[in-house]
Automatic annotation (TrEMBL):
GO MF annotations, alphabetized: 1-phosphatidylinositol-3-kinase activity
Protein name: PI3K/PI4K catalytic domain-containing protein
InterPro entries from the UniProt entry: Kinase-like_dom_sf (IPR011009), PI3/4_kinase (IPR015433), PI3/4_kinase_cat_dom (IPR000403)
Pfam family membership, one: PI3_PI4_kinase
GO CC terms, sorted: endosome; peroxisome; phagophore assembly site; phosphatidylinositol 3-kinase complex, class III, type I; phosphatidylinositol 3-kinase complex, class III, type II
Family statement drawn from the similarity comment of this UniProt entry: Belongs to the PI3/PI4-kinase family. Type III PI4K subfamily.
One Gene Ontology term from the biological process aspect of the record: autophagosome assembly
Domain PI3K/PI4K catalytic: start-end pairs: 1-88
Origin species: Oncorhynchus kisutch (Coho salmon)
Domain of life: Eukaryota
PANTHER family, per database record: PHOSPHATIDYLINOSITOL 3-KINASE CATALYTIC SUBUNIT TYPE 3, PHOSPHATIDYLINOSITOL KINASE
Amino acid sequence: MDKLLRKENLDLKLTPYKVLATSTKHGFMQFVQSVPVAEVLATEGNIQSFFRKHAPSDKGPYGISAELMDTYVKSCGESTRELDRIHP
């Protein structure tokens, strides 16, 4: 999917998970560390504070890395994105 979208000049900053089938019933899947949005809100108060803590930048918007903001905003456009997870 990511390759098709990029071919159309649409980079939604997708990170396809790695999956390896070892049989018709078994396989391995990549674990991606993430934090539930509810936990971010409970501990940091808001998503911006969480981003400032994990990707600070004096030159970026709101004191947050411009690259992180770009990736986050673009990832929100993906309909299959797990909406309650943030990948630090």
